[in-house]
Amino acid sequence: MIPSTLSRTFGGQVAAQCLVAATRTVGAEYQVHSLHGYFVAAGRSEEPTLYIVERIRDGRSFCSRQVKAVQHGKPIFIMQASFHVRTDEGPEHSDEMASQQVVWFKSKARLPDDETFHVCTLAYMSDMTLLSSALVPHRGEQYQEASLDHAMWFLRPFRADEWLLYDQVSPSAHAGRAITHGRIFNQAGELVAVVTQEGLTRKIVGDRPAVPLKGFEGK
Fold first, then answer.
1. What is the pLDDT of residues 10-61, one digit of tens each?
2. Residues known to be catalytic
3. Which CATH architecture is the domain 93-203 placed in?
4. Hey, what long-range contacts does 187-190 have (CB within 8 A, 24 or more apart)?
5. Domain 11-85, CATH 3.10.129.10 — does that match?
6. Which positions fall inside the Acyl-CoA thioesterase 2 C-terminal domain (predicted)?
7. pTM over 0.85
8. What residue ranges do the domains of the chain occupy?
């Protein structure tokens, strides 16, 4: 467990730990290239989480895994991840930067020279700030935010302890939900990862905080 002031488990933490669990079940010749996850229930930050990995397929070029994050016997997050051999080759191109909200970010600490460590760290960080891009056109209003699903594609090698630019847009928000897209670039301007997330953006009624805090007694 990671100490937290939040009563609910941070979604990026669960996604990153699911990816760590999945990665430990595939050979070193494979690297993760995409993940898709669903937040099916709120996790409790003070409770331990069990990560259960199911081997969906082991092929020559691709491997697939499904991971369930479980608390008290019930899933709180379900992820499917796909891994691809590192040796395949093909055409090369990279999109350019654009934006609605831009964030520069990196790990404060120097990280080990382990590609998996950097990928899982980025999965953790990718859940930060993305949903708030949906609220850029609605500044001054208060909304409850929560991740509903999360998908990532890892396109090129990168280091999570070097500056990365997170280019974020929200093409639609309706009926208390918003869709957001994020593109992550390295300092050379190369696109290294893409993120898509749908989230809850519910108008706050009363005095409840946007993010539940430990000890908050709501009315």
1. 888 999 999 999 999 999 999 999 899 999 998 888 889 999 999 999 999 9
2. 127, 147, 197
3. Beta Barrel (2.40)
4. 187/162, 187/163, 189/94, 189/96, 189/97, 190/94, 190/156
5. yes
6. 95-200
7. no
8. 11-85, 93-203
